[in-house]
Amino acid sequence: MRQHFTFACAGETLAATLDGADGSTGLLIVSGGNEIRSGAHAGMAALAASVAAAGHPVLRYDRRGIGDSTGENAGFESSSEDIAAAARAFRERCPQLTRLLAFGNCDAASALALFGPAADVNALILANMWTIESDTVDEADEDAAASTITASAIRSRYLAKLKDPRELWRLASGGVNIGKLVRGLKQATAKTEVTGLVARLGEALATLDRPATLLVAEHDRTAMWFLEHWASDAFAKAHANPHLSLHRLNSGSHSFASAADKAWLKERILAELRT
Questions:
Q1: Strand, coil or helix: 101
Q2: What does the domain layout of the chain look like in residue ranges?
Q3: At 201, which helix (H) or strand (E)?
Q4: DSSP state, residue 12
Q5: Residue range 200-215, pLDDT digits in tens
Q6: CATH topology of domain 2-133+194-274
Q7: Is the pTM of this model over 0.85?
Q8: I need a labelling partner for 140 at 20 to 30 A (CA). Which of 118, 155, 270, 275 fits?
Q9: Contact status, residue 228 vs residue 262, Cβ threshold 8 Å
Q10: Helix (H, G, I), strand (E, B) or coil at 231
Q11: Residue 254 and residue 197: Cα distance in Å, rounded?
């Protein structure tokens, strides 16, 4: 049964939706970006309903300044109190809960990595974790868009071009913009930058003392950046953390939009809830 209610957070009122079930292991869904709790194309609402049908209660909520909640939207790095308040409200609404998992996609995954342990959450499911300090890409501008492509993706693209006789002919006949080629080669050989956010996430995952399942739609741009950083020194200690597991999906959908992607995500979440 679906219920709508509100709870308090730092002097503000947050709106929430509970899909009820009798199970003692519940799922807290944290919305990413500026999405409302129903998710893109109501994807999180559908996920909540299907997980609840499998016997696990699910709580979704709008953080401060988003959707039906009051207050100022200060971004995911200011959401620690929202996550903690939601976890408390969930346990109060469902007193049978003995274990609470939290799921987030994109910057919600990053927020959970940083703040989930302090919110009395027993395990984390982190999808397509956001590791970029800012995103100023104008997708209509090819050069600007290319600047956000990971170095490994650029290397793969140039390797494919070098294997294509038509591309080699274009290069030999002057049909290639040399300036763009030089910029691309510089990006392809660039070392992945370890920014402040990446360093914090690396430290958070390295010291995590509870299970965390990392999910990546490996052709999604945000996930590609995560994988680039995951292979860097910033996450070297996290690789040794026995509480972490990484699962890849052959997809480019950031929101797990296709039926097959949705089914994969649901099964991964249910597997963790059953553990």
A1: strand
A2: 2-133+194-274, 151-188
A3: helix 196-206
A4: E
A5: 999 999 999 999 999 9
A6: Rossmann fold (3.40.50)
A7: no
A8: 155
A9: no
A10: coil
A11: 20
